[in-house]
Design goal:
Elements (H helix, E strand, L loop, with lengths): L5 E3 L2 E3 L1 H8 L2 H9 L5 H15 L5 H11 L8 H17 L2 H12 L16 E7 L2 E5 L7 H11 L3 E6 L6 H11 L10 E5 L5 H8 L4 E6 L1 H8 L7 E6 L2 E6 L1 H4 L2 H12 L9 E6 L6 H23 L12 H16 L6 E5 L6 E5 L12 E6 L5 H5 L6 E7 L2 H14 L3 E3 L18 H4 L1 E7 L2 H4 L25 H7 L10 E4 L9 E4 L1 H17 L8 E4 L9 H11 L3 E3 L7 H10 L4 E4 L1 H10 L1 H7 L4 E4 L6 H11 L3 E4 L2 E3 L3 E5 L8 E4 L4 E6 L13 E7 L10 E10 L11 E7 L3 E4 L2 E4 H12 L5 E7 L4 E8 L6 H11 L1 H7 L5 E8 L16 E3 L6
Parallel strand pairs: 4-5, 4-7, 5-6, 7-8, 9-10, 9-14, 10-13, 12-13, 14-15, 19-20, 19-21, 21-22, 22-23, 33-36, 34-35
Antiparallel strand pairs: 1-2, 1-6, 3-16, 11-12, 17-18, 24-25, 25-26, 26-30, 27-28, 28-29, 29-30, 31-32, 33-34
Helix pairs in contact: 3-5, 3-8, 4-5, 4-8, 12-13, 20-21, 26-27, 27-28
Length: about 850
């Protein structure tokens, strides 16, 4: 019976099928690449698999443990089980969303590197990282996790990936990649993954594999790389992850540091020196002109280190002797015999374990010498002045240097070793460790698996287009989660268990609808959100190459609006005058004129007061052309006044967002009223029925519920923001396929009084349409002895006679007329007041639209 050794786009196949399908590889690649792959798709699937790998009682863990040990977890030897468990733990850690997001930020500059965006917002030049196409991975046999993780890197770069492992390797890679593909229900990942198992001696298959490749990543020595190089077509990118040599370098003070030597001995024993970062040589910082003393010091240190190595080696499981490679054993024996022979010349000293489990070779000659591995280490002298001259000829092979010394020594030696060709420097005991996003062999893998592409577009047509991909199709977003809905209380409770590393920036909400709530972000969270908002501001018509912006949002007491827009404008490299909102309107108006500001950012209520109080000066200046607002909305009449009296040409939302979730949407130049595009790079949106937790029919109003996907700190899933809205169908006239919503107000805008439900927006609409009112409007709900009382507060600068206003409201709001009139359920008065008398939130300056002061039943 033919074994099914190979995984091919979602199913396991046998040798004959694999050979047939390899012949069709070019067609497969063309078909798969026609469907763009979002990094979001890869991140979600990887995180799903990572969670499964963290469950020792789970089916996936058991199957992969069997692959690694060749037996059920309970039947495997303790040493094999421990090593396999460590490998699975490393895989689980590497596949977490935070780890991969950090890798994307480090290597490709952001979480959506495949999108054609403007690296310089002042130019209509778009750049992105694109896949190379078909990426072939020829994996090593000595590192089980390398093969599947290389494919994951290839997927993050958007490639079609074909992996070849040796027929003697376990099926770990095939099974893990199959699980990864299964975690993505649309098949988008499966169509980009092929994992084969056959020996490199099958040149017929190797040719079929390499012939259509756009890039080949190969692990191995020079012979293996040269063999593959002969098979790749002209122009194919050959990515060689070749064998490397690593070493330790100890200053004189570190020679006698027992803890340092113990850590170094552990590095020698881990993985039997099979990793490229394992130490093969220990260099001592000796005096350059005293050879006799140097030899004495060298041999004495070898004796001391042998004692330490013996102790440490005993704590590591002994390597099997029955399954050892005869060639490797022959190399160890030959090296030892030659080194012993040179003892008679005073050049070397050999110290070995009685059972042959470890070896220390001291050599008075500094030239870099490869170790035969398996706990075999050279000890050599190397004065620091000779480092570059000695090591630079071997720079092609150098990888890791572990350095022990004081702070000044480490800094100086690190720079010298890098000059000699070393690619990474670590402390003793950490040579085999790595951190998320670390370069490998001196380069970033994702960049080698990608192409940097650019598109130059005419400025007059694309000035307000932040991303070319939005003109093609909606961004791919995962389905929303199915868990319970969250509100502010759940979000605040979540903060109690937040890890310190995920709590770097603290913001308070403005407290418009209640007590200020705390929101916490990581610096990466914040940067991702500000860059997304910056793209939205471009779409809204802000021109960073020409506009001169005054930031007039509120600042202080941990409120985020001023800080956020400072960051947004900074990322756009725009000219910014960061004034912040203040009560000295005259000084602010003078600054706007003095600094030739043509664009202002701020809350509508604050900007309205500024224009109202400084009307003469600002009309005379006539230079304010753009107004970008947040948190509230201008009425139609207010817009008319700003346009006709002050010459403002653009009045548009700067962003739709909240302190807890961050930016949620943006307006484009074609947006009308409260319509916004959704920032789908950051969030997944649901619109749920106002009364029941189910989606509303298309186009119907409902509760806006967001799931944020790019937060390492607070993970807000199915978060009820407190806003109502409806989806807007069709492609926007701006050409963007990004979904749109029309905001319909806060839950708090709707209140029950006198047996009726009223909407604050209905009051502003009637005042504007039937009274020509263009000021602010505030509702106060109070209780009287016999009934409830509604006070409608209007700005005295714009309000008509209060009786006229009251009559209009009663006549045109049917429910109000009935409740006040024949039904006598409530009373209503209109109050005329100065704008300074209107109640606002102290932190943000927002107008409190509905103030409920009714006596609550106890």
């Amino acid at each position: 019976m033919t074994r099914e050794l190979h995984y091919w786009q979602g199913s396991f196949i046998d040798d004959a099928q694999a050979a047939e399908r390899l012949a069709e590889l070019p067609t497969l690649v063309e078909t798969a690449l026609a469907e763009p792959l979002s990094t979001e798709t890869v991140l979600v699937a990887c995180d799903t698999v990572s969670q499964a790998l963290r469950q020792p009682d789970g089916d996936l863990y058991a199957r992969l443990m069997a692959d690694l040990t060749g037996a059920d977890a309970g039947d495997a030897a303790d040493a094999d089980r421990e090593e396999a468990a460590a490998t699975l733990a490393e895989l689980a850690d590497a596949l977490t969303r935070p780890a991969l997001e950090r890798k994307l930020r480090r290597e490709l500059g952001g979480l959506r590197p495949e999108r054609l965006t403007r690296p310089d917002a002042r130019e209509t030049v778009y750049e992105a990282w694109a896949p190379v196409g078909l990426l072939v991975h020829i994996a090593p046999g000595n590192a089980a996790g390398v093969a599947p993780l290389s494919v994951v890197e290839g997927l993050l770069a958007g490639n079609v990936n074909v992996l070849k492992t040796s027929s003697s390797d376990t099926a770990l890679a095939q099974h893990l990649l199959a699980e990864l593909a299964a975690a993505e229900p649309t098949g988008a990942l499966a169509r980009r993954i092929v994992a084969l198992r056959f020996p490199s001696s099958r040149q017929d298959l190797m040719r079929l594999l390499c012939a259509p490749a756009d890039a080949v990543a190969v692990w191995g020595g020079e012979g293996a790389v040269e063999g593959v190089a002969e098979l790749v077509p002209p122009g194919c990118r050959l990515i060689a992850w070749g064998h490397k040599i690593s070493f330790a370098y100890l200053t004189r003070d570190a020679w006698a540091d027992r803890s340092a030597l113990t850590a170094l001995a552990a590095d020698v024993c881990r993985f039997e020196q099979q990793a490229c970062s394992s130490p093969q040589v220990i260099y001592l910082d000796t005096e350059p002109d005293a050879p006799a003393a140097t030899a004495s010091q060298l041999f004495a240190f070898a004796e001391e280190f042998a004692i330490v190595l013996k102790e440490v080696s005993g704590t590591f499981p002994a390597p099997p002797t029955d399954g050892s490679d005869p060639a490797e054993q022959a190399e160890i024996t030959t090296t030892e015999l030659v080194t012993r022979a040179e003892q008679h010349l005073g050049l070397t000293k050999v110290i070995t374990a009685d059972d042959g489990s470890w070896r220390v070779f001291a050599d008075t000659r500094p030239a870099l010498t490869a170790s035969p591995l398996h706990r075999t280490v050279w000890i050599k002298p190397l004065p620091r002045r000779d480092i570059v001259a000695t090591l630079r000829p071997m720079r092609r092979y150098l990888q890791t240097a572990s350095v022990a010394g004081d702070r000044a020594d480490v800094a100086q030696l690190a720079r010298t070793l890098i000059t000699a060709g070393v690619e990474r420097v670590t402390p003793l005991g950490a040579m085999l460790d790595s951190y998320h996003g670390e370069p490998h062999d001196g380069v970033y893998a994702l960049q080698r698996y990608s192409r940097r592409v650019s598109v130059q577009a005419p400025e007059d047509v694309f000035a307000t287009t932040p991303c070319l991909d939005d003109l093609i199709a909606p961004a791919v977003t995962p389905a929303p989660p199915t868990g319970p809905l969250m509100g502010k209380a759940e979000a605040q409770e979540q903060l109690r268990s937040l890890a310190p590393r995920n709590a770097q920036l603290y913001f308070h909400s403005g407290g418009t609808t209640g007590a200020p709530a705390l929101s916490v972000f990581t610096c990466d969270d914040y940067d991702t959100q500000m860059r997304a908002s910056a793209h939205g501001l471009l779409a809204a018509g802000f021109d960073p190459s020409r506009d001169r912006a005054a930031n007039l949002f509120y600042c202080g007491e941990m409120y985020g609006s001023f800080i956020s827009f400072f960051s947004i404008l900074e990322r756009l490299e725009a000219t910014q005058i960061p004034i912040a909102a203040g009560l000295d309107y005259e000084a602010i108006a003078k600054a706007l004129v003095a600094y030739r500001v043509n664009t202002v950012f701020g809350m509508p209520s604050y900007l309205w007061q500024l224009f109202h109080s400084q009307g003469e000066r600002l009309r005379a200046y006539g230079g304010i052309r753009k107004v970008f607002y947040g948190g509230e909305h201008f009425t139609t009449e207010q817009r008319r006044i700003l346009t006709e009296n002050f010459g403002v040409e653009v009045i548009r939302s700067a962003a739709y967002g909240s302190t807890d979730l961050g930016p949620l949407g943006y307006q484009c130049t074609h947006a009308q009223g409260t319509v916004h595009h959704v920032l789908t790079d950051l969030h997944t949106l649901e619109i749920l029925d106002p009364e029941q937790d189910r989606p509303v029919p298309a186009g119907q109003p409902g509760r806006l519920v967001f799931t944020t996907r790019t937060r390492a700190g607070q993970r807000l899933e199915r978060y009820q923001i407190g806003d109502m809205g409806r989806a807007v169908d069709g492609v926007c006239p701006c050409g963007s396929h990004t979904p749109r919503i029309e905001l319909l107000g806060r839950y708090g805008d709707v209140f029950r009084m006198g047996a009726y439900h009223f909407n604050y927006r209905r009051f502003t609409q009637i005042a504007e349409e039937h009274l020509g009112y263009r000021g602010e409007l505030q509702l106060l709900l109070t209780s009287q002895a016999d009934r409830e009382h509604l006070i409608v507060r209007l700005d005295g600068a714009y309000a008509p006679d209060p009786d006229v206003a009251r009559t209009a409201l009663l006549n045109h709001i049917t429910e109000l007329g009935s409740a006040v009139g024949p039904e006598e359920l409530l009373t209503c008065t209109v109050e005329i007041a100065a704008t300074s008398a209107f109640e606002r939130t102290r932190t943000s300056g927002k107008l409190r639209t509905v103030i409920d002061r009714r006596t609550k039943a106890s």
